[in-house]
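> tool_call: predict_assembly(chains=two)
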Amino acid sequence: MASIPMQQGLLLAGILFSLGLVGLLVRRNVIFVLMSLEIMLNAAGLAFVVAGARWGQADGQIVFLFILTMAAAEVSVGLALVLRIYHRFKTLDSDAVSEMRG
Amino acid sequence: MEVVFYIAAIVAIASTILAITRLNAVHALLYLIVSLLSVAIVFFVMGAPFVAALEVIIYAGAIMVLFVFVVMMLNLGKKATEMERQWQRGSMWVGPSILAAILIAEVAYMVASPVTAAYGATAIEPKQVGITLFGPYLIGVELASMLLLGALVGAYHLGRRTPEKTEKK
């Protein structure tokens, strides 16, 4: 970490997060939406690790471990929901599921 | 070591752009795996070897395999054979292979060079991470275990094989 400035790492995290956000907004396939969420969570974890390396503390890596756990839980439930959506609606279009008119 | 970081960052951004613009889900997953591997190299260069290993094992291993399984389950039928024929042509895995070859070259370069040059003297070892994780953050570990248990029960409940009875009610 001595040779790499923190700004570069945070810039990389920001770019990856923006790409995930663009993918989340543009795609309508539910699988791609989940993949974009994974990109965004990974970028957030990268920002934590960069900050933790900057100050030489282990806390950033521990927060990354929690983000990893949360991403695993989220994606398992999300993919189970995707399977149910496909079996019921025969499509992966996220607009097809908007049946709830509130 | 700055060169390794910048090359890995460029590979990460390029493969992520390619991942969110693919039309086929399996192609996008291949690029996404390459993106996660390059982020793992960034972690290693940053002085976080434990997190880099976890990124490879859990993110690029377990979570992406989950995605691949679901995509395989959704593509049953005659579309699957058509897709299998496409996979055999080999034109689609050239891009991820080139990006992964760059990453392998970086890893070989880091293995060949002395360890102190690979990540600086400020590297945070797994021992320090473990001591902090099971010290001040013990309640977080317990909460994470409950979250995983809840996700397990929820995924099992959603994935059961009796859809009609529960939905019609």
